[in-house]
Amino acid sequence: MLSTLMNYRLYSADMAKSLARIASQASVQRDADYYKANIGKVKSPDDLLKDQRLYSYAMKAYGLEDQIQSKGLMRKVLESDLSRTDSFANKLVDKRYRDFAAAFQFGSASKAAVQTAAQTELVTEAYSEHRVRAANKAGEVVDLYNQKIATVTSVADLLNDPTMLRVVAKVAGLDPDAADQTALKATLSDALTTGASGSTNAKLRDLQGRFQFQSVGSPNTGLFASPPQIASALADMAATYFDETGFGNSPQAAAYKTNYVKSVLTANPSSQTLTQDDQVLDYVLTAFGIDPTSVTPSQIKDVLNADTSTTPNALSTMPTTTSEQRLLKDRLTALNAAFTYDTGGNPTTSVFASSWSMDRLQSGFYEAYRADDVAIDKLRTATFEARLSNMKSINDLLNRDALGTRATLDYVLTAFDIDPSTESNFKLRQVLMSDPSDPNSFVSKLKDERYEKLAAAFNFGADGKPTTQRLVQSVSSQTATGTLYATSFGTDVNAAKKDIIKADTQAYLKAVGEMRTLDDFIDDKKSMKYALKAYGLADEKLSDADLRKLFTSDLADPKSFANAKADKRYVKLVSAFNFTPDGRVRRDAEGAQSGFTLLTTQNKFLLQTMETQVGQQSEGARLALYFLRKAPDVTSAYGILADKALFEVARTALGLPAGISGMAIESQAKLLESKIDFKDFQDPKKLDKFITRFSSLYDSANTSAASSPILSLFGNSAGSNGILGYL
Questions:
Q1: Is the terminal CB of the chain with fewer CB neighbours within 10 Å at N or C?
Q2: In 3D, which of 583, 577, 610, 609 has the Cα closest to residue 596?
Q3: 63-77, 223-237, 644-658: lowest mean pLDDT where?
Q4: 576 and 480 in contact (C-beta within 8 Å)?
Q5: 8 Å CB contact between 275 and 301
Q6: Which one is predicted more confidently, 328 or 715?
């Protein structure tokens, strides 16, 4: 009969061959083939529990064979959301249950959806950021126009400059990229002979009136006086441009509108001027919280000119039946009090009352415009989110809605700086169904980050229907990584350090949630450093090339880069992410199990089967192999004490009497800690030496015994936290 050590060496010397021998056994092969062929059909915990063959295979793989009949318990385990620390599986002391739940992710994985909540938040944030960027760009265009206009002497000068043409076309209500420059030049030049009224287009007539045409010169030469625009016209030009580009409520527009109003009220402060100029009137009404559509310019003029010391007047005759009417009267009364006009519309002193000033008017406008700007964005976002909730396929996004608009699609494209007017549905369909992590996909070949972000923001499968999200790291793995990162600092952590750890974790979770490719992860040095520290690899000198080989390792291949390092820390790191061997990103929860998790389960089944078969020949060898697999995960004496099988190996190897089990748990832990450096278990040579000592002492203690109660050690508290690529 072979000794414990020889049996142990027979299997551990070449674990790949040992597992291959087990896998070639007919019964094992049949079970493996059935599991692989049918596990993809499982969509829920009930599906798994109903198929006894699949269920039994999985339970044995994770060392839970003794709990196969406890289906009520296992349903709760499978339904656990591992991203929540208070979930059922997380609260169980025995880690086998958490590992089992993690192998299926029924409770943690994202469900098929057009967008997850996180993706929707990314789109709305991108939309807000776009609005800020676009408003800044509009401001830059206006600034450049103001710089260049002083040098313009003719219509040709004006329209031949791309920036000035853009502003002129927009103010005229035309598309700058499609405006007929020749016709626009002719229209403006014609003002020299026919005057501003020569055009039948109201916006063109207004545009003509903003320039100073010379009264002499050849017809249609389009000459301007110097300067071609006076200050008020220039400010009005800017304000109109902002309105036409959709940024009339931006901070940049507010500044230009304020300058324009100042110039108008300084040049001609009459109430007639204030009410006849749409820009000025809108500014003043906005500052006082008055809806411009609720009053007419003539009504405002009467209010401004009203003498409230006599009755009747424009204010005293206003209706006050409803709360809306009373509120409007109050605001118009405040407007009257702010200005000093006589009944003829002329300012008696300054245009403002002593208690008012341009600064106060400006403050009122700025406060109101900010509220309007926020309200506009909120309305657009709310519309997007409401329509998103009713989407069932990619067609619902691309096709026009019941109102004949594409407001939702326009919102999304705008968020990613894509012009909705230039995109075809065919191209967008191909983009939205592409995998941005695949270098050969349609979207990747476009070499445009905007479209990659668009593709990553939605979860459409090849059939155009919603599926699960592609995540560089699943939500539950993100949570586990965060926990490991905090643990890596030890237990003696002060408040300041805790704040730093929290900030680091928040930054990591945000960054990893937005990553689309393996390159994104490798290039983000801060996030990579966080992950390496979490998995105990912070001090390893890993180049970008090493990291790429590491994360694209096929963990089912014992010779892969991660497995070949013979250090389980690398395998644990790689298994915490969703990268495939070809560098793509898997979708979250592609079936109950696929890829790595399927291979992990099959490998665990082989390990359990091997250890069981070894135990039939040598119970000591089974303990030795089990310790080889489990010990590298142990970081404290309590990890040994929580597992009867591990404790038996440690007690025997250290030559401790069986009676120590009667000691207080704290005393047992203290004794073990005085005799074991747990870091040694992560060193393969030191671990092997420990197991060799156990094997010799075990045989000495058990050679005369007819039988040994070893099987009882692999029951309720025996864990099974082995890893793919047995070390």
A1: N
A2: 577
A3: 223-237
A4: yes
A5: yes
A6: 328
Select from 547, 703, 712 the least CA-distant residue to 645: 712
- In the numeric block, which tokens belong to residue 543? 């180049």
The per-residue DSSP string of 176-223 comes to TTT--HHHHHHHHHTHHHH-GGG-S-HHHHHHHHTS-B-SSSSTT--B
- The structural domains of the chain, ordered by start, are 4-109+595-714 (1.10.3700.10), 151-226 (no CATH), 390-456 (no CATH), 475-561 (no CATH)
H or E stretch including 352? strand 347-352
Kindly report the CA angle at 364 between 362 and 369, in degrees rounded to 5?
A: 95
- The SS3 call for residue 339 is strand
Torsion of CA 177, 182, 185, 191, to 10 degrees: -130
Residue pair 638/663 in contact by the 8 Å Cβ criterion: no
214 neighbors 192 (Cβ within 8 angstroms): yes
Q: Quick: pLDDT tens for 677-708.
A: 998 998 889 999 999 999 989 988 886 544 45
Six token digits for residue 280: 């000025």
* 57-86 pLDDT per residue, tens: 999 999 899 899 999 999 999 999 887 888
- For the stretch 683-699, what's the b/e string if a residue is b when 16 or more beta carbons lie within 10 angstroms of its beta carbon? eeeebeebbbbbbbbbe
Give the whole-angstrom CA distance, residue 157 versus residue 626.
Answer: 85
| The two three-digit tokens of residue 601, written as one number | 């389960």
Per-residue exposure over 292-315, b if at least 16 CB sit within 10 Å of its own CB, e if not:
eeebebeebbbbbbbeeeeeebbb
Q: Which value, to the nearest 10 degrees, does the dihedral of the CA atoms of residues 432, 437, 441, 447 take?
A: 90
Range with the poorest average pLDDT among 218-232, 336-350, 529-543: 218-232
Q: Is the peptide bond before 581 cis (omega within 30 degrees of 0)?
A: no
- Phi first, then psi: give them for residue 182, nearest 5 degrees: -65, -45
From the list 522, 395, 384, 514, the residue with the least C-alpha distance to 449 is 514
CA angle 211, 215, 218 (to 5 degrees): 105
The Cα 419–Cα 384 span in angstroms is 17
Find out whether 461 and 96 touch, Cβ atoms under 8 Å: no
Beta bridge partners of 352: 339
Cα separation of 654 and 669, whole Å?
Answer: 14
Token pair in block for residue 165 = 């043409």
Number of other CB atoms surrounding residue 716 within 10 Å = 11
Q: Which residues pair with 470 in a beta bridge?
A: 587
- Neighbouring residues of 173: CB distance < 8 A, sequence distance ≥ 6: 203, 244
d(CA 688, CA 13): 11
DSSP structure class, residue 110: P
